[in-house]
Specification:
This protein is α+β, with helices and mostly antiparallel strands and 121 residues long. The protein contains four helices and nine strands. Strands 1-2-3-9-8-5 form a six-stranded antiparallel beta sheet. Strands 4-6-7 form a three-stranded antiparallel beta sheet. A hairpin with a 4-residue loop joins strand 1 and strand 2 (8-13). It is globular, with a radius of gyration of 13 Å. The two termini are 21 Å apart.
């Protein structure tokens, strides 16, 4: 699993990246009440806003860490946005994206580097 400075996580299998927000981001937002999912088939460039997560405290854009096409979304989040808080890295994923450029991941951090990044932020 890889992590971004914008607090997204990425799990890559072949050329498909599963993307969500990190536990740190979920805790900072508080209990989520709404998730605006991208549409399957939509294409995005790296760092485009592709989803929105909303809590009682605030709303936040989720930035896509890779260039590609959305091939699946986690429809469970429509009725259970709290899955992002309660099952961040398992059932709290937002979308699966067929990547068009693996080099987009060159800035992504492993878990140790991400923890260090959080410590120094």
């Amino acid at each position: 699993m890889k992590f971004t400075k914008d607090h997204e996580w990425i799990k890559v299998e072949g050329d498909v990246a599963t993307i969500g927000i990190t536990e740190y981001a979920a805790e900072a937002l508080g209990e989520l009440v709404y998730v605006e999912l991208p549409k399957v088939g939509n294409k995005y460039n790296v760092h485009d806003a592709f989803a929105v997560v909303e809590s009682s405290k605030s709303a936040s854009d989720v930035y896509i860490p890779v260039t590609g096409e959305v091939v699946a979304v986690n429809d469970s989040l429509t009725s259970q946005p709290e899955l992002i808080n309660n099952s961040t890295y398992a059932n709290g994923w937002i979308a699966k994206v067929k990547m068009s450029n693996n080099a987009d991941l060159s800035d992504a951090m492993d878990e140790a580097a991400y923890k260090e990044f959080l410590k120094n932020s």
